[in-house]
Specification:
five-stranded mixed beta sheet; disordered N terminus; 14 helices; single chain; six-stranded mixed beta sheet; alpha/beta; D-Maltodextrin-Binding Protein, domain 2; 2 domains; SsuA/THI5
Length: 355
């Protein structure tokens, strides 16, 4: 009887103890959708994706890991320009650079940084995305070759090896450049080197590379003791396209036009700040570098020096898009058979701010 009474006394206490331990083991911090989504590598630790007070939430996915070209976004965050516009902005990084537009179209993120030709290519595949602002107004991808090499212009690539980074657009660019320079594109050896652009040129495996950025690969090659010269595709028949654009989905623009317009106003303030205080902007950027992709201050400083003149033009608001630019890029892509003729330039962009 005493044993039964003891069990009756201890059993409720034991159950309560187990409940307390179980409660301590569960903090309530369930993984967010971005953590469980294999397509999202990470979010900026200083940002939030939830509404706070009267602020509206927006999420933006970068085109790559944080670097100098994104300074205006981090400055807008750090200086409170998003908050001034009543926005809480969640800055995310893609696990794969091809994911961003698909995630925007699916409503997983509100905004993404992408490339002007890529928007038209996406619409040709039925992906309903549009550019709402031009970030970098001219190509950053140039044909890169060794300074003391045999290539002085695109036609010199006949009989030589050109490495490119798995993107059909870059193949079309180098073929256009050769044709415009009276060369025969079929006489070059075009090799897909994937992400190994730098080692392929540095090792001599390739005589030139297409897909390297003048504010990144060129700077790294030069720092590693491989001086290179760049040949601008615009000088050889490729349209002067916007290298980087800010993108949203058709549905997103319709549903959140006011919030997106306020976002554009905030990044305009951020860009103005970067222009006036570039060193401070880089300090802000470096404070947000991704641990998996640490930044080199020297490289990012030189990169920003290259970028700033290409991101703004006198008398034109930051982000403004010229219809003629979209028409020219669309015509070239159709000629190269990269997009169907049914894709219309006016469907691929919208200006949310005044000129």
């Amino acid at each position: 009887m005493r044993k039964k009474k003891l069990i009756h006394i201890l059993l409720p206490a034991l159950i309560c103890l187990l409940l307390i331990v179980s409660g301590c083991g569960n903090t309530g911090d369930n993984p967010s959708s971005s953590d469980s989504d294999p397509q999202v590598q990470g979010t900026d630790s200083t940002t939030t994706g939830s509404s706070s007070g009267d602020h509206d939430s927006l999420s933006i996915m970068l085109d790559w890991y944080p670097n100098a070209v994104h300074s205006f976004i981090y400055v807008a965050q750090e200086k409170g320009y998003f908050a001034d516009q009543g926005l809480d902005v969640d800055i995310q990084m893609p696990a794969d650079t091809n994911d961003a537009l698909k995630l925007v179209a699916a409503g997983k993120v509100d905004l993404a940084l992408s490339y002007q030709p890529q928007i038209l290519l996406a619409r040709g595949e039925g992906i309903p995305v549009r550019s709402i602002a031009a970030v970098v107004r001219h190509p950053l991808v140039h044909l890169l070759t060794e300074t003391d090499g045999n290539v002085n212009s695109p036609k010199d690539l006949e009989g030589l090896t050109v490495g490119y980074s798995s993107v059909p657009l870059y193949e079309a660019m180098v073929r256009t450049m050769m044709s415009q320079d009276s060369g025969d594109p079929d006489r070059m050896n075009l090799v897909d080197v994937g992400f190994d652009l730098i080692p392929s040129l540095a090792s001599g495996q390739a005589d030139a590379i297409m897909g390297g950025f003048i504010n990144h690969e060129q700077l790294i090659l030069e720092k590693e003791g491989h001086p290179v010269k760049s040949i601008n595709p615009v000088d050889y028949g490729v349209p002067d396209y916007y290298e980087l654009v800010l993108t949203a989905s058709d549905k997103g623009i319709e549903a959140k036009k006011d919030q997106l317009t306020r976002f554009v106003k905030a990044i305009q303030e951020g860009q103005n700040d970067v222009i006036e205080h570039p060193e401070e902007a880089l300090n802000i950027l470096l404070a947000h570098e991704n641990e998996t992709s640490p930044l080199d201050r020297e490289i990012e400083t030189k990169s920003l020096d290259i970028l700033l003149p290409l991101m703004t033009e006198e008398g034109i608001a930051f982000g403004w898009q010229e219809p003629s630019s979209w028409d020219n890029v669309r015509k070239w892509l159709v000629q190269r058979e990269l997009v169907p003729d049914s894709v219309q330039a006016e469907d691929a962009f919208i200006n949310l701010q005044k000129e």
